[in-house]
Specification:
Chain B: Pfam families: ABC_tran, CysA_C_terminal. The complex is a heterodimer of chains A (291) and B (350). Chain A has 291 residues and is mainly alpha-helical. In chain A, 70% of the residues lie in helices and 0% in strands. Chain A contains 13 helices and no strands. In chain A, helix 3 crosses helix 13 and helix 4 packs parallel to helix 7. The relative contact order of chain A is 0.12. Chain B folds into 2 domains: 231 residues, 3-Layer(aba) Sandwich (Rossmann fold); 109 residues, Beta Barrel (OB fold (Dihydrolipoamide Acetyltransferase, E2P)), CATH 2.40.50. By secondary structure, chain B is α+β, with helices and mostly antiparallel strands. In chain B, helix 2 packs across helix 3, helix 2 packs parallel to helix 4 and helix 3 packs across helix 4. Chain B starts with a strand and ends with a strand. In chain B, strand 1 and strand 2 form a beta hairpin. Chain B has 8 helices and 21 strands. Classes of the chains: A mainly alpha (291), B alpha+beta (350). The interface between A and B is medium-sized, with 24 and 29 residues.
């Protein structure tokens, strides 16, 4: 403190004391505010970490009365584990479709001159929020019924893919645009065909972009509730997000033991996926000059 | 051999980047396409490579017409300005890539890559990625990749422009020696006349999609066919002074010079002489350009002196230690034997 004071000889001596007090008060205020914000976000996570192991979970986070009984009673629920498998099927299916289709579309849009290309992309982006949104649920249900896609994984996958594609194309097109065309031209002069160029050059170069889109698609589908809730009848096909909604007593009060335990199991795969992809691909871009 | 007949490339919107161009490039020749930016030289190279489709005309490589063939079936290798090395592949994989496309077995193509790399002193760098190489090393990897596929012709787009000045001189000598050794027909594009003069066996000087002159560096330098080439070639620009032939003499910028061959009385011409062929004398001189020294530029072993001769500026190169002071009166005396005369922009000196 004194050193800091001495190095600033220009500071007038008299208000230095009040200035110091004001400074400390400011620091305390800032710390309190940050602690509150951190607490606001951390407490639900703390609850998620303690409640599943608590014999009598409440809606507040507390030191648990340790037990694994909640997990056993969750296993007794006929749909709990199956729903996680359904979540995996639906999110992996959608992610594969989104990454594959968006990569092809973004590559074409990035390389071929299409009149009104940007307007098209912006329109798609704008409409995509409507496609899977609540407003379009009735026509989508109608369409799915006529196509015999009600109560199938495919129906859910196609609907969610459609909703995610515009944004995915939009983001991937940016990655494709950033890849110099000389890479592809060079490969073309050596005799590579379009698919070879895509597979040997473009896909590896934009791989961090593909990984980002894949993770984003999985996370979006994993958390989506309305579409599978409406398109699926059979609880054996319902994903975790829908099953979570069924964990209530007949009276309508939440079974906190089951909800907390299931929530933990439900969020773990997504966290693991983030860690895995970040390790393996890294959400970064390595271009031609610096790695 | 590469032959172009009436080759035209017109972009949508009517811009003619290459305009009805005829050109013959001999086997094993090191050929430069030289011109200012936007003159169509890169478009021409890309049309030879097949990356651009010709609007009209024919391209023949090694006796086979390739005008309609895709780039991969023309048997040429191109080195791009940014080298276009694949960032996710190491040096070996980059060099072996053309062979991978030709379905050469992995062991064979890796051996071939290692052999080509050692020829270009890249053996130490085989496991590196392009991002870990210097500009000069990247260029050699790009060359090795082109060499490894044994093409009928090399096409280089501005091969030296991404190197710093010092590296560029080394690379110039290196490229010329390499081309001599390989003896493969090579076409390269450059906007740097010094590079073209230094490396090429022959040069085509281009402007606005047309060829202004084709010749050896000596021909293009000593006898530029028109005022465009005259002003473009040479590290110090040629003096190009308007004059008129009257009473059996050439009147130019206040000087009266003997009438050159090939022009008649009353004709308006442009008198061209390189500053290197002007001698600077003090005071007045019978057939010289008298004026006042306005600028003196240091060229290292010589000085470029600009004389203000009233309406026109005349430049002369003088040896070191002989430079005049700015403001002094001086006279530039031309060496008549080196003088060139242009009428309507075309050379008339026999």
């Amino acid at each position: 403190m004194t050193v800091g004071h001495e190095t600033r000889p220009a500071a007038p001596p008299a208000p230095a004391g009040t200035g110091r007090v004001r400074h400390s008060l400011g620091a305390i205020g800032r710390a309190t505010f940050l602690a509150m914000v951190a607490g606001f976000f951390a407490l639900p996570l703390l609850w998620l970490a303690t409640a599943p192991f608590d014999a009598h979970p409440t809606i507040t986070a507390s030191v648990p009365e340790f037990t694994l009984r909640n997990f056993r009673s969750l296993l007794d629920n006929p749909y709990a584990l199956g729903s996680l498998a359904n979540s995996v099927i639906q999110s992996a299916g959608s992610a594969v479709l989104v990454v594959g289709l968006a990569a092809l579309a973004a590559y074409a849009l990035s390389r071929v001159r299409v009149p009104g290309r940007d307007a098209l992309l912006y329109c798609l982006l704008l409409l995509s929020s409507v496609v899977t949104g609540t407003a379009a649920m009735v026509p989508i249900f109608e369409l799915a019924t006529r196509l015999n896609l009600i109560d199938t994984h495919l129906g859910v996958i196609l609907t969610l893919t459609g909703g995610l594609l515009p944004a995915a194309i939009f983001i991937l097109k940016d990655f494709m645009d950033a890849t110099p065309t000389s890479y592809e031209e060079s490969a073309r002069v050596f005799g590579a065909g379009p698919l070879q160029i895509l597979w040997h050059i473009v896909v590896p170069v934009v791989r961090p972009g593909l990984a980002t889109i894949g993770v984003w698609a999985v996370a979006s589908v994993w958390g989506s509730f309305l579409t599978p809730f409406i398109l699926l009848r059979d609880p054996e096909k319902s994903p975790g997000a829908v099953i979570l909604y069924t964990l209530y007593t007949e009276g309508g009060s939440p079974k906190l033991d089951l909800i907390s335990t299931f929530s933990l199991l439900y969020s773990l795969p997504v966290v693991l996926m983030y860690v895995f992809v970040s390790r393996k691909y890294g959400f970064r871009f390595h271009g031609g000059i610096k790695r | 051999m590469i032959s172009l007949h009436g080759l035209t490339k017109e972009y949508p919107g009517g811009v003619r980047a290459v305009d009805a161009l005829d050109l013959e490039i001999a086997d094993g020749e090191f050929f430069a396409l030289l011109g200012p930016s936007g003159c169509g030289k890169t478009t021409l190279l890309r049309t030879i490579a097949g990356l651009e489709t010709a609007t009209a005309g024919r391209v023949t490589i090694g006796g086979t017409e390739v005008t309609g063939l895709p780039p991969g079936r023309r048997d040429v290798a191109m080195v791009f300005q940014d080298y276009a090395l694949f960032p996710h592949m190491d040096v070996t994989t980059n060099i072996a890539y053309p062979l991978r496309i030709r379905k050469v077995p992995r062991a064979e193509r890796e051996a071939k890559a290692a052999e080509t790399a050692s020829r270009l002193s890249l053996s130490e760098l085989l496991a590196r990625r392009p991002g870990q190489l210097s500009g000069g090393q990247q260029q050699r990897v790009a060359l090795a990749r082109a060499i490894a596929c044994h093409p009928r012709a090399f096409l280089f787009d501005e091969p030296l422009s991404n190197l710093d000045a010092r590296m560029r001189l080394e690379a110039r000598t290196f490229l010329k020696r390499l081309q001599r050794e390989l003896a493969v027909t090579t076409v390269f594009v450059t906007h740097d006349q010094g590079e073209a003069l230094a490396m090429a066996d022959r040069i085509a000087v281009m402007s606005a999609g047309r060829i202004m002159q084709v010749g050896t560096p000596a021909e293009v330098f000593q006898r530029p066919a028109n005022t465009f080439v005259a002003s473009f070639i040479g590290s110090t620009p040629m003096n190009l002074l308007p004059g008129v032939v009257r009473d059996g003499a050439l009147h130019v910028a206040g000087a009266v010079l003997p009438r050159p061959d090939g022009v008649a009385d009353g004709e308006e011409v442009v008198y061209g002489l390189r500053p290197e062929y002007m001698d600077l004398a003090e005071g007045e001189h019978a057939d010289g350009f008298a004026g006042k020294v306005s600028v003196v530029e240091n060229l290292g072993t010589a000085y470029l002196v600009t004389l203000d001769c009233g309406e026109h500026l005349v430049q002369a190169v003088v040896p070191e230690d002989a430079e005049p002071a700015p403001g002094a009166a001086a006279c530039a005396v031309p060496r008549h034997r080196r003088a060139l005369v242009y009428r309507d922009g075309e050379l008339v000196t026999p």
